Amino acid sequence: MKNLIQTAIVASVAGILAGCYSDSSSKTEKNEAQSVSDAQRVYVAPGKLDDYYAILSGGQSGSVFVYGIPSCRFIKEVPIFEPRANLGYANNSGSDTYKRLHDTGPMWGDTHHPVLSQTDGRYDGRWLWINDKANGRVAKIDLHTFETAAIAHVPNIQGAHGIAAYLPSCKYVYVNGELEHDLEGGSTDPSRYHSVIAFLDSGTLETKFEVMLTGNADIASSGKDGRYVFSTMYNSENAITSEGMIERDRDAVAAIDVPLAEKALADGKFSRIKNIPVIKPEDVPGVLTLIPVPKNPHGCNVTPDGKYVLASGKLSPTVSIIDAHTLKVVAEPEVGLGPLHTTFDNRGNAYTSLFIDSQIVKWNIDKAVKGDPTYIVDRVDVHYNPGHTKAAGADSSDPSGDWLLSLNKMSKGMYLPVGPAMPESQELIDISGDKMHVVAAFPSMPEPHDAVFISRTVLADKVAQTYDPQPAAIKLGEEKIVRNGTKVDVYMTCIRSKFVPEQFEAHPGDQVTVHISNAETVRNMTHGFALADHGINIAVDPGQTQVVTFTAGAQGTYWYYCTWFCSALHLEMRGRMLVKAPNETLSDSINPPTQAKAPGTTGPASYE
Ligand code: K7E
Ligand code: CUA
Ligand code: CA
């Protein structure tokens, strides 16, 4: 009897184990098969190109990051509000790039929202605009070169946060002041605090006019038909503490009637503050409509068809759906906890990031508007705490409906630990089917807030191979040294694998300006100009001319050399700045002798 029982127990335990084993092994096999198919979805073979450029804002890195999608390969960082030694961008106080940045504010920035230019509702691959939240600036990046083309400081703004292009024309980019202050008198009395939404000429970045608000303006999205632009406001309380900013159950979406604002401008209905025309809504009825929505709303996203503007509730588990023409709230579907930003596919679905739930929720806009309780389509867990989410094409009228990025604030446990601070993390989600599916994750430097995707087919052929010849370019054979008292201008060329001239002379304390043109005519043949012990490093791309000014140091020899590995003679690509005693006469010859001594007497005898 005892044996029988024992046998039965052993048998049943074995059975349970066998059952478990076969269950988990089929599960493992399934997971492995899924991993293989996910890997295939994002695999782009070496030498093959990705389908999309994803341009991620760099947050407090002050730059943008360019990734290929679907491979998630990091391709380039474009420094905008930050010097970067590797690119020679702006890190020499006497360079044009440095001056452009320095003249508009500090040498760092906080980039949140990359905005692509559009023509006829589609991305046209011309410009990218981005904000600097910390220092009230906006930059324009030329997508032909991926270089900053302009930076402007926006008067009367603190916390330049949300930014969008006024559609469909992209005549303006407008930027939201998130941080309230007294723009008129500099008073610290909070009852005098306001903020503004500033409209900049999208070409020159000149501030054309501003609309004043009581409270703040946070995230921006333009209607599609040239009438209203929208901004969320979380501090309608105009409070000065976080408790105060959550007192009301409802804040607002601000709608600005742009043609009416332009008319007010033409009619002179504005005040000038810091020489900018500022429209006060009380003087121009209808220019600003405040649409009440719950509670401390954040994301502001106009649907691709232009019918609705969605305000993500943040402290409310809802997204408010507002008719973009009547400005009436038509529905407030519940989507989950901590809704921050919403993006779109081409099939009428919205995808909202849920910061607290650590999810992306997919929901159907029409069903939500009609009150159909089945509007939630799917949810997927992300790792962890997403801020923005962005699907390919979603800010245009023509979303693609294939890929979506979740831009996650936390990445605990996702990557090799690298100290108390972990990288930000993005997850790539396949949204082409009914169910969302996370297929890849990749880390990035802090802190991407937002991203935009632009198709390779739109942009790749537009990207310049080389710089167009600039009027100031120095031509091969026309190099020269021009001396004027204590000022020395060196007009230099570089081409594989030589600087011309390979030497120039100065006295200690002379002001030296090097104008350097890269004479290469093929893409990818960048040369650098780094000068020992003078803090100078400039990257010069093919066809480009850079200018840098510095003060010659103490008497001695200082080599300059090429910092970009360009040829087998890259290391030999160098030259000397000779700083000579004040009483020595200087030579302006650009053809120095090639050897220190007579040939044959320089190296060890065995070399000969
Ligand atoms: Cu949500 Cu600056 Cu776009 Cu960050 S803001 S997440
Ligand atoms: Cu030129 Cu290295
Ligand atoms: Ca509030």
Radius of gyration: 30 Å
Rough outline: globular
Small molecules bound in the structure, each named once? sulfanyl-(tricuprio-$l^{4}-sulfanyl)copper, dinuclear copper ion, calcium ion
Helix vs. strand class: mainly beta
User: What percentage of amino acids are in beta strands?
Assistant: 35-45%
Residue-averaged pLDDT: 93
Question: Cα distance, first to last residue?
Answer: 101 Å
Low-confidence stretches: 1-21
Walk across the major sheet and give the strand order: 8-9-10-11-16-15
Report the strand count: 40
**Biggest β-sheet strands, sense, barrel:** 6 strands, mixed
User: Number of helical segments?
Assistant: 6
What percent of residues adopt helix (DSSP H or I)? 10-25%
Please give a quick description of this structure.
The chain is mainly β. It binds sulfanyl-(tricuprio-$l^{4}-sulfanyl)copper, dinuclear copper ion and calcium ion.
Descriptive keywords:
6 helices; mainly beta; globular; six-stranded mixed β-sheet; binds calcium ion; binds dinuclear copper ion; disordered N terminus; 608 residues; five-stranded mixed β-sheet; binds sulfanyl-(tricuprio-$l^{4}-sulfanyl)copper
